[in-house]
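Hey, quick one: can you model this chain's 3D structure?
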Amino acid sequence: LATRKGIVKKTEFAQYNTPLKSEGIIAVNLREGDELVDAFLTHGEDDVLLVSRKGQAIRFPNDAVRPMGRVTGGVIGMKLRSGDEVIAAMIADDTADLLVVTENGYGKRTRMSEYPRKGRGGMGVQTVKLTEARGKLAGAMPVREGYQVMLISTGGTVIRMPVEDVKRLGRSTQGVIVMRLREGERV
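Sure thing. Here's the predicted structure for all 187 residues.
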């Protein structure tokens, strides 16, 4: 599990095999003002990749997070600068690309193999060079050739495109226009 404030938690899947209550069961003890961003399955040898709104990404080994019980809070996965937050978490797969899109419609794909494995709890590396014109990151996700993605604007415009239409670039580049927006809209 990963939260907006950069906390990660690993729990053995068997711990969720419990009788359900009408209000559900606790999966993570969130700190005040924090919220869950992502949940995914890991398989021992995986690396985890966290991406922040201000364009940072950190990759660390899955085994850097010890398994914990359901009713625990987790540990720091990524340190964040003031005003930053984690927007995506995933398994880092060197055969895939990381697709990032900014709020002003710019995007790019970067090979996940370009993200160096670091220790858990750092600030990570730059995943996109952000400018005021491009805005902050709106989203990030792993993609492969043959995938299609949909982008939705705050004004309700939707576009669907093959990932091959999004240029593959290095980590510290700005990206290219992937969605044209009307005045005042954001992705």
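One thing worth noting: The radius of gyration is 17 Å.
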